[in-house]
Amino acid sequence: MGRVYWLQRRKALDRLPRWLDILAFAFVAGGLLAGLILYGWMKAAVGPDPGAELLARQDALLYLLLIGALGLVLLLPIVWPLARALERRIGVSDEAVHLRGEDGREWKIEPSRLTRTRRAVLHGRYSFPLRSQKGKSLYLEGEIEARLEPLLQNTPELTPWQGVRYQWRNRDSLLLWPLASVFMMLLLAGLAAVLQQLAPAA
Predict the structure, then answer these.
(1) What backbone torsions phi and psi does residue 111 show, to the nearest 5 degrees?
(2) In terms of DSSP H, where are the helices of the chain?
């Protein structure tokens, strides 16, 4: 077995997953705090005896704030899988591709058993990003072309749609969690619209 060489990524990527986690939680916490402050301000503004109409509007606002809070929380399943995927590493040796998960587990895989797209190497339910959405390499110049591509030259490259289907079949969290979050956000947006329509009648 030859020595494993781990592809060198751009330095900013080493800190990006941690910052994504921090910013996501800070954004959610800040949004929840702002919602509580807004609701508290409204309760103080209407006084102890707001009347039926103002009470109905206050309840509608509370429901909307709760929906907004859930929407903010649903950002986490979008950010978290991306941050975990960016923690994964790709290495090469003379005869194999080596993959390291975010939990430290490693796999030695024959190139012919791998699946890839233009933007990532795919292995079961794990995605190992190579390039950004705009096609910019996440690794230092020449790392992918000179070290990884020669091993993958006989590995067919999937189209973007084929890659999505592969991720779906293998329950890749990088695809499933964001899809579930977006679906739930759409439901919450619809519920918020219904509550806004019902609020004047209350």
Answers:
(1) -55, -35
(2) 11-46, 51-73, 76-86, 143, 160-169, 173-198
